[in-house]
Task: inverse folding
């Protein structure tokens, strides 16, 4: 029963902007004629704002002993350009208010501050928008929180850039670089030439990046929990934006090709959301009648969006210092441990193609034979596409007919063949994953001709998206698709006895919005992450009923998904045009179990070709599991077996934490793993024999390097060791005292 009297009494206890409060940090209004400096201090980090009348601007961020982070604009003689952040900018994407709005349009309605925190409320001078920002400094970490409420009658699509740090400089625009949670990790730069925009999920696999100045930098983490809620009400699309042209285009390939701009370098987070208008909620009349208690600093008549929390850590040292902080901050992410012991020990994944089977006159009875062949490259887990029927009987386009997974390919032997084949592969110690598509359905498949159209992603104009010709794009947040996909996969496990699935596209697809009004998430379109989490949860629930040892791998990388899946498969080297040069995700989460591809050549214009062994060695040194693609399989087989030998002898390489300490060594790639004892990996990624001269940091005391594979030892004197390596050789050592 609603007790009106009690509710009114609670309301009366809320702090009010009008309440007389004489304490130093009370919420107060400001005088339009005065100016003041607001300085927030942590341990060594200092954040300065300036209030000029009703306007608030971020003036400077500085860590003691380091140059200031924001540099003065040559023309404006102030930090940042006026439309560009410091700390916020708004871009209205459509409608009568379309345009870019900077801090000068936000007028303070109330402000509260202490030595380490400022909270300010604003109304906008030309938009029906009210907002609040709160900035807190603790130690050397700045926390940014924001909220914005839309009071326009109609819905509006908005991008909030918050925080947006404009005109940033560490060592200089030609030296500073971006280290991003893009796929398994990338380094891009220099910052002065870079235009980079990536969304989490759908490009970014973790909502974090660093701006690295060589021996110092700052890390940015967007740590909202909205995607984990039971409903999508708090969700918005969040993207890392780092560049010199504002506003940045969404498409990374287009952004990377943009000519160098003059508005940066800037770095920040973009929060995109469709804000519903007041007409959906009854407007002022409804508010006055039932919702107002007359005390709140922001009047919320329409929809609102939360911005952040975003954390900025100003650090000294190499990128691993910031990564250690990120690792700790992201510990709250749940990550599943598979009960399948065979899978925990599996470090290489190979693939087969249905075309290859047809050409060789083989079928599903031959799975043990194919498994034996893949063992020659070091793998005993096989991903098999095209195991289900083609669209038209008598044809061989099994792979195209994505959706009809329940109907096993008669042209490859049918259900009996896959059952017998899987069983025999098991007896030989092999394991089979079947290939399914997580996000697209062939329009002329059975499910494509029945329900898939209703589950498809819809653009704002009512058209269906079609990223691949002839396919429907599934909305991951649509319950019909989730249930059908989950129960179909469970049925396939029951029918065939297969070990699990490789779900293509799932984490490797750009973050899409869905405006389909029939979907249960409507009217909110920014449900991509929330939906992926829901669909993967449903799949896990259903396949576990059939067999709790079922392995689920997704294409792409995404830390949030790891709660329900067992690992991911990524072409990190090729997809990033060989910018996968910092193993950020392996450092943050050893549990990620990403199988990184070995042989695919880079995509995109002007991408350099790498010798095929190079990506494999990079993966091995940094402890990534390996996806042994069909491409280059013959060429890479001997090296694949060598890597497998070391992975078997040193489980630490794929499972242990990457060390924060590095050897100093320019000739070869090395990595240290924090196991007991510590393990060192070394690779010569060149076609010449090399004598590597390694220097260990004082914190890593070692007297002998011992190789478990050939029992050879190498002396370490005064922290230095020399190691001769053949071309393309990979080795690992225990670090013994
Ligand atoms: Zn949808």
Result:
């Amino acid at each position: 029963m609603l007790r009106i009297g009690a509710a009114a009494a609670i309301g009366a206890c809320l702090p009010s902007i009008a309440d007389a409060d004489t304490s130093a940090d009370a919420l107060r209004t400001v005088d339009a004629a005065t100016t003041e400096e607001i300085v927030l201090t942590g341990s060594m980090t200092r954040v300065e704002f300036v209030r000029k009348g009703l306007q608030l601007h971020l003036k400077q961020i500085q860590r003691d002993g380091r140059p200031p982070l924001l540099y003065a604009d040559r023309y404006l003689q102030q930090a940042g350009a006026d439309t560009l952040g410091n700390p916020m900018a708004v871009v209205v994407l459509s409608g009568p208010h379309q345009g870019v709005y900077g801090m000068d349009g936000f007028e303070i309605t109330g402000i509260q501050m202490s030595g380490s925190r400022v909270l300010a409320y604003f109304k906008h001078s030309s938009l029906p928008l009210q907002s609040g920002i709160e900035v807190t400094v603790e130690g050397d970490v700045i926390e940014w929180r924001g909220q914005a409420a839309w009071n326009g009658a109609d819905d509006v699509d908005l991008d909030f850039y918050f925080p947006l740090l404009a005109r940033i400089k560490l060592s200089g625009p030609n030296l500073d670089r971006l280290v991003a949670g893009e796929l398994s990790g990338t380094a891009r730069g220099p910052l002065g030439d870079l235009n980079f925009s990536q969304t989490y999920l759908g490009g970014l696999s973790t909502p974090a990046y660093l701006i690295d100045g060589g021996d110092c930098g700052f890390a940015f983490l967007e740590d909202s929990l909205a995607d984990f809620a039971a409903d999508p009400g708090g969700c918005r699309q969040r993207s890392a934006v780092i560049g010199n042209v504002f506003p940045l285009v969404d498409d990374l390939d287009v952004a990377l090709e943009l000519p160098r701009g003059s508005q940066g370098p800037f770095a920040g987070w973009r929060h995109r959301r469709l804000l519903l208008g007041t007409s959906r909620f009854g407007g002022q009349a409804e508010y006055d009648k039932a919702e107002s208690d007359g005390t709140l600093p922001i009047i919320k008549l329409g929809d609102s969006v939360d911005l952040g929390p975003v954390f900025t850590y100003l650090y000294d040292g190499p990128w691993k210092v910031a990564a250690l902080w990120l690792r700790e901050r992201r510990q709250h992410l749940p990550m599943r441990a598979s009960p399948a012991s065979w899978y925990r020990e599996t470090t290489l994944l190979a693939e087969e193609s249905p075309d290859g089977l047809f050409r060789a006159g083989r079928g599903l009875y031959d799975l043990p034979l194919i498994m034996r062949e893949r063992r020659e490259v070091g793998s005993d887990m096989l991903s098999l596409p095209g195991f289900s029927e083609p669209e038209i009987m008598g044809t061989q386009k099994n792979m195209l007919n994505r959706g009809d997974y329940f109907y096993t390919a008669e042209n490859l032997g049918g259900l009996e063949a896959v059952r017998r084949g899987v069983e025999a592969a098991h007896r030989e110690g092999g394991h089979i994953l079947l290939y399914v598509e997580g996000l697209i359905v062939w329009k002329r498949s059975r499910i494509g001709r029945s329900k898939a159209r209703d589950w498809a992603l819809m653009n704002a104009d009512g058209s269906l998206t079609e990223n691949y010709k002839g396919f429907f794009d599934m909305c991951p947040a649509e319950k019909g698709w989730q249930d059908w996909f989950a129960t179909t996969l469970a049925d396939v496990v029951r029918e065939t006895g297969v070990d699990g699935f490789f779900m293509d596209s799932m984490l490797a697809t750009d973050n899409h919005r869905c405006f389909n009004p029939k979907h249960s998430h409507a009217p909110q379109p920014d449900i991509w992450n929330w939906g992926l989490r829901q669909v993967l949860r449903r799949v896990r629930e259903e396949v576990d009923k059939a067999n709790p040892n079922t392995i689920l791998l997704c294409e792409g990388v995404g830390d949030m998904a790891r709660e329900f899946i067992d690992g991911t498969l990524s072409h990190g080297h090729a997809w990033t045009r060989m910018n996968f040069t910092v193993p950020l995700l392996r450092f943050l989460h050893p549990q990620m179990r990403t199988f990184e591809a070995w042989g695919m050549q880079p995509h995109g214009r002007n991408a350099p070709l790498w010798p095929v062994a190079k990506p494999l060695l990079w993966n091995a040194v940094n402890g990534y599991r390996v996806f042994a693609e069909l491409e280059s399989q013959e060429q890479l087989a001997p090296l694949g077996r060598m890597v497998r030998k070391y992975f078997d002898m040193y489980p630490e390489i794929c499972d242990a934490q990457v060390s924060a300490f590095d050897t100093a060594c320019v000739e070869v790639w090395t990595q240290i793993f924090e196991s007991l004892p510590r393990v060192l990996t070394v690779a010569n990624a060149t076609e010449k024999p090399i004598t590597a001269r390694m220097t260990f940091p004082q914190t890593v005391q070692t007297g002998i390097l011992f190789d478990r594979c050939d029992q050879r030892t190498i002396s370490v004197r005064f922290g230095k060791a020399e190691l001769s390596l053949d071309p393309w050789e990979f080795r690992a050592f225990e670090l013994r005292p």
About this structure: The chain has 15 helices and 35 strands.
